[in-house]
Design goal:
Shape: globular
Number of helices: 6
Distance between the termini: 33 Å
Largest sheet: none
């Protein structure tokens, strides 16, 4: 397995990359269904938010290996000065950890892990 040295990236940078990758992967997934644009956008927004990401993070955390858990914990514990009103500070921290994990998966060429999360926590719920 190829590991990315996460020390080359600060936690918020990993989360920033992960946020972009997460939204892009969801857009690609829902675009395959050829739905009307407004339905597509609504579905993507449903899953690209701190509340949903926090829930998924809590569900997958116990299955992470030690390195993945360390990457996500480092992001969860970083200093965040402001939070959106749409979620609690804990949800936002968990979402940041989730996004950093997605960023790590992307940079270390583990897109299959991102696909597994999408399949297990989004696609099965949509069916």
């Amino acid at each position: 397995m190829e590991y990315v040295n996460v020390l080359d990236y600060d936690s918020l940078s990993l989360a920033y990359i992960g946020d972009a990758v997460w939204e892009l992967e969801l857009r690609k997934e829902f675009a395959k269904k050829h739905e009307k644009h407004h339905l597509f956008v609504t579905k993507v927004k449903k899953y690209v938010n701190a509340k949903f990401q926090s829930l998924v993070y809590l569900k997958i955390f116990d299955g992470l290996d030690d390195y993945e858990a360390a990457v996500s914990k480092r992001a969860r514990n970083c200093v965040i000065k402001s939070y959106p009103k749409s979620c609690s500070p804990i949800e936002y921290r968990n979402a940041t950890a989730f996004e950093a994990l997605i960023g790590y998966y992307h940079l270390s060429k583990k897109e299959n892990k991102i696909c597994e999360i999408i399949q297990n926590y989004i696609i099965k719920g949509e069916e």
